Structures are given as structure tokens and as C-alpha cells.
Amino acid sequence: MKRIIITISILLSGILSFAQTGSPFIHDPSSIVECDGKYYTFGTGGGGLISEDGWNWHGGAVRPGGGAAPDAIKIGDRYLVIYGTTGGGMGGGHASKIMTMWNKTLDPESPDFAYSEPVMVLESLVDEDFNAIDPGVLIGPDGRMWLTAGTYFGHIRQVEIDPATGRRVEGNEAIDVGRNMEASTMMYRDGWYYLLGTHGTCCDGVNSTYNIVVGRSRNPKGPFIDNVGRSMIQGGGKSVITTEGRLVGPGHFGRYVEEEGVEKMSFHWEADMDRSGRSVLGIRPLLWKDGWPVAGEAFREGTYEIQSVRSGYALELEVDFVRAPGAMRGLGRSSDGQTDVILEEQKLEDVIGTWPEGVIEVRNGYYMARPWQRWTVIPVPEAGGYLGGPYYKILIAGTERALAANGKAEVEAVPQFTGADEQLWRIDQLTDGTFRIMPKAIPGHDEPYALISLGDCSPTLAPFDFKSDNSKWDFKFFSPVE
Amino acid sequence: MTKFVIIRTLITSSMHYFPKLVLTLLLSVFVSFTGSAQKKSAKVDVAEALKGYFTPVTTPSATPDAEGFIRRWMILEPISKPNSTNRVFTDSYTRENLSVEYFPNQLTVIPRDGDKVKVTMEYQPPVDLTARRPVGGGQNEPKFVKATLTWHALDSDHFFVKLFRFATGLDKDRYGVIFWTVTVINCDEDIENVRLSIGSNKAARWWVNGEELLLLAGDRHMGVDSAVSDRITLKKGRNILRGVTMNGPGMSEFCARFIDDHGNPVTNYTITCN
User: Model's pTM, two decimal places?
Assistant: First the structure.
């Protein structure tokens, strides 16, 4: 029974950290674009979502033109929105157009909000092996802009767009770069161009088999090859993300780079089984492994060691080391006939009486899985969030003692979690799979400092630097929250 | 004076290490020199004794090295505090035992080379270097002895300060000892948002201008930037950096520097002994 309760608890808590909150209902979302401190994404059928913090989403974004599966990109101080004029015509014709239009802002309340007249950059005829919907765009490192579009009905087709005008580059000839997918888009990183698409079936609720795949090329025009040598035009594709538990059918990849080392991928889940099977916005950390993009996992509540990548030391309370029973045995004796005995791990009640009652400093120390090193990380949904995640409280397991920022821009453990902003923590998985930990606020400070190991034993709050392991942490699972 | 330091040291702290005949010979050699020759000879002896690890200070001031490490220190000969194991160095033990007043004004004194300190400290027998593990320490009723210890002005030959070799070089107790160290940081202007960075083998406490910045507990080893303080301001003029390090058996050493919020060394100051 206890196991059942724990399992249910994990599932319920997972809801908080898996999907966006508010009303994140959308299908075929565009890449997320930031405008004047708010996040926007546009979907099929017109309109889209807005979020003030990147975690709580609601309707209200405005996109005329209807049709399907738009994309959006900021170029200079303007926004280019791209969309297909039809929905794909599964059982009929496949004539459609890809249109682009500009806006000075994405905020429909702004006096500057006004779309330019849409212009066509690509089209499909009624009965050719191409379907001009699902556009995605990339501006490469050389400033050239590429647009891909298409569905299972034929090829994924690529054209070049003039980023100054949003129109097709004059004389550009469309080429075919993929097959057996839809919801394509491109991205660039470290000398590689990536073509992403979605395999599987969409629009079938909890039975949708959508999943996101990728191939790569040194040339923006391909051929894009997957991890086993298949071209995307041969139907290849390396997996980026698939169905996860009660979240079904990820599709329509979009990349959002916050800063070096902090990237997110947006998409939709075809069905969120905890929200009536509706299609919802998904946001995950975007990781890079061996030159390939991989979806990071949603951070799950639990009790963890919080380990500094710099040193391997664990974040801990600055309290006396309490020795556990169990002297060294067996030195030089491979067979002494003794029966194995299971040793008890040290428990909170074994040590908590030695701790001060007030604020306790924190430091990093050798990880011994001891009570002063076990941190329970729990989302605090009512505290809002950031792009892709809620704020968390970080407590010494079994207590309300909370990790907190203080007015000296240092960290400490206060006796009682109160919900104050300095006790709330943002946890971002970085592109290398490690984590950045940042307080929501630091009393008296405006700097966006992160938890840093400036010394092996000395956590502090200081500027984040992805190039330094001082800035990175790992969470080593210890136990579920009880 | 320095000769006197050597003689006093031999007499007061290490007599038990030497056969009386050797000690008599040493004394007769020293007292046969003239005053200046005695000073020169004694200084050479100190330099020789610490060769490879320390050089007696000969210049008015020094600068941190290229990586910001502070190499110029006043170091007091070790105070015996026998511990047969390093397991004892919890936070509480470290704070309690490094809060004891071992000599007057230990948290404020800015000593000069050759200054003497009278202490009462726990006697420990000579170390048996053929033994695999430390012997003694705490099994019997402690026996306390009076001793006069000397401050030495030294430049470390390395980024670290090898306290262990300071002790063995001067033929002092090598294990289960406490080392007091002081240096002066001279700044042309306020330097804000710097952090004291210490690597320490073993337990220690560190202060700048009388404010305790670090307490280092545990059976720890010396690594660069092992422990880093909160942000402080090094004020224009003199800043007193003081540390006390306590070890049981094994090596004892530390390294110290100031770093900024990005971990870069701070080097725009000079270092003097007093």
C-alpha cells in the first residue's frame, strides 16, 4: 500500500512539473518568441498563447490568416510570423500557401500592434507531392534564412527567405530535404545544420504516435543524415523526444536559446491525460549530447544529493559530522566466515539534536548520504515559474529547513520555509545535462545570480558562467518524497 | 637575536629530542661566535633548516604571486596540541579548540621577526618515525609544559605554506600541533567584493581585520580555493590577515589568496610582515 501511495504521489507531483500551468492548450505551436518581457507562441487555427513568466500560459496571442502550424522569429526589432493557409487536406486536395507577415510587436494591447500584408513565399498545388503547411525557419550563422515546410504528403521542401523583407530570395529554387515527416524546422549549432521533423500520427488524442526526430548536415541544404546514416529524405531521423507517461505524442519542435548553455525546446503534447487528453504546450530543457539534440527531463520532486560539478562535493548544512556506527572491517580478509549484516543508514533523528535551531550556514562537503546532505526538492506551483518550470523549495529532508538567499548574496538554511521569494529556486537543466540553480530573488540585490561553487567547499551566489563547472550542479536521486 | 632564538628553541621546546651531548656541543659552537657572526650564522642556519620550503624575509615588501597566492608570512613555532587522529576535527571541536587563548593578544598581535611568545602547552613525546601509526596522545593524563616560541618572518618558496616542514625544519613537534600565521595586506585603495580563499590541511580559522571569515573543519586536505569566504572589502591601507591551523597526524599546510566573484586572483596589493 505504501508503495502505491508513493507511486500516486509521484504521479500527482509529476503533473506539476511536467506540463505548463494555466491554460496551455495549443496545437502545432510555433517557436516561442519573447517580446517586451512576455513569451508568445502561435498555433493552428489562429491565435496563440501568452505567458508573463514562461510557466503559466493563457490565450490571447493574435495571429490572423487561420490555417495551420505557424512559426515566428524575431529579426532585428521586428517579428516575422509565418503560416500555412490551409490545414493539410488529409482527404482532399493539398493546395496551400506559406505566407509571411511582419509586426513591430506581438503584444495585441500595444498601439504598435499591426501585421503587415501577408506575402506568399511557397505554395503547393492541388495534386503535387508536396503540402505547403507546417513552416519552420532558421537564420544561420551567415545571416541566410531558410524555410522548410511540408507533410507526409510528399516531401519536406526548403526555400531561402530574405530576412530583410520576409520574401523569397529572388531566383531561389526550392529543394526537397526530407520525407516521411511533418512539422519540420531547422537549427544550427557548432558547424552543423539540423533538420527536425515529427514522425508518427497526429491529431488522434491519446492514440497519437507523434514523436520528434532529427538529422544533420554540414550544409544548410543537406543531405541531413541521422545517427545510423540514413538521410532524412530517405525517411531517417534520430529520436529527440517521444511519449512520456501520461503525456502523449510530442510534435512541432521549436528551439529557444536563453543564453549560452541554457536552451529550451517547445512542442505540443498531442494529449495530456491529466487534462482530458487535450493538446497542450510542452517545454523541456534542450540538451546536446555528442552533437545531437536530446530532450531533457522534467525535474521531478524528490530527495536528492545536490552535487557540485566543480568538486563532486555535496551541498550540506554546516553542522558537526556525526559518526555512524560501522567501523572498517575486512581489511585484507577475503573470507573470514562472517555473515553479512545490513547496516542501518543514519537517520534524521540520529543527528538533528546536534543542529542549531536558527539559521545554519551551508557549504559543500564529501557526500556521505547523511541527513544534513539530503535535500527534498518540491515544486511550489502557486509561486509561479520561468520558461519551462515552476519554482521549487529546497528543504532538508524531513524538515521545513529551507535553502535561502540572504542579503549578502550568500546562501544559508533558514529554520522554516515561508514561501518568500529568496526561498524559491529556479532549476534549469543545462545543455550538457547538468543543472543551474538560481534564487527567485536575492534581498537587496538585482543581479540574476546563480548558486556557484566558487570554492570546493563554498557555495555562494554569483554570476552564472556556463563555461565554468563552478556554475553547475547535479541532482543525485536519493528517495521519493514521503 | 636570531642565534638566541635557535638556542632558546632548542632549550625550551626540543630538549627532549636531543641527547645532552649533542646539545652541549651545539651550545658551545654558538656561544663561541662573536655577536655579528652569531647573527649571521644563526640566520644561515634558519635558512638552511627551512631550505626548499621557506626563505627568511630580506625585502621590505612582497607581492602576491602570479596566481595571487600570498607567500610572505609571520609564522609562530608550533604549539603542541596532541591528537592521535584527525577524526576529531568537527566544526564544534575546531571552534572550541581554536578559541582557546594560547598566548596573550593572539587575535590582535602583529609580531616582528624574532618576537617571543610564552605558552603553556601539552607535552607530547618524540615521534617514532619507524612507527606506522601515531603513538600516544590522549591515552594518559595530559602533562603540560611551559615553552617560549618564536615568530619567524618567512617567504614561502611555493604557492603553499608547508607548516609541517616549518616544524620539522626547526625540529619542533610535527604532529598534533597548532600554527598561528599573520601577514599584512597593503592596499592603495579599497578593493571591494573580494573573497578570502584558503586551501587547508587541516582544521583552521581565518580572520581579516579581526572579522572571522572562515572556519574549516574536517579531515581536510589542501586544495586551491577549497574554501572561500563571503565577499569583503580590503580597505585602503593595512589589512591584517590571520590564520590558525591545527592538525593531528599527517601533513599540515595551507595556501591563501584573494579572489573575485569569477574566481580570478586579486593581486593589486603588497604584502608585509608587519
Answer: 0.86
Set of cell numbers at residue A242 = 517521444
What span, in angstroms and rounded, lies between the C-alpha atoms of A392 and B199? 33
The three cell numbers of residue A55 are 510557466
Q: Which of B195, B225, B231 sits opposite A456 (nearest CB)?
A: B225
Range of the domain at B22: 1-49
Tens digits of residue pLDDT in B24-42: 333 333 333 333 332 333 4
Distance CA B258, CA B242 (A): 13
| CB-based contact A454 B229, cutoff 8 Å | no
Query: Which are the contacts of A2, defined by CB distance < 8 A and separation ≥ 6?
Result: none
Give ipTM to 2 decimals.
0.78
Q: Which of A146, A185, A186 minimizes the C-alpha distance to A169?
A: A146
Residue ranges of chain A that CATH labels 2.80.10.50: 302-326+341-479
Put simply, the answer to whether B231 touches A408 (Cβ < 8 Å) is yes
d(CA B257, CA B179): 18
B230–A457 C-beta distance less than 8 A: no
Residues B11, B62 within the same domain:
no
* Pair B4, B135 in one domain: no
C-alpha torsion A160→A165→A171→A175, nearest 10: 20
What SS3 class is residue A415?
Answer: coil
Helix (H) or strand (E) run with residue B91 in it: helix B91-97
In b/e form, how buried is each residue of B36-64, taking b as 16+ CB within 10 angstroms?
eebeebbbebbeebbeebbeebeeeebeb
In this predicted model, what pLDDT tens digit does every residue of A428-462 receive, in sequence order? Answer: 999 999 999 999 999 999 999 999 999 999 999 99
Q: How many other C-beta atoms lie within 10 A of the C-beta of residue B81? A: 21
In order of A19, A53, B236, the CA distances from A277 in angstroms are 13, 25, 66
Question: Using CA atoms, how far apart are residues A51 and A280, in angstroms rounded to an integer?
Answer: 14
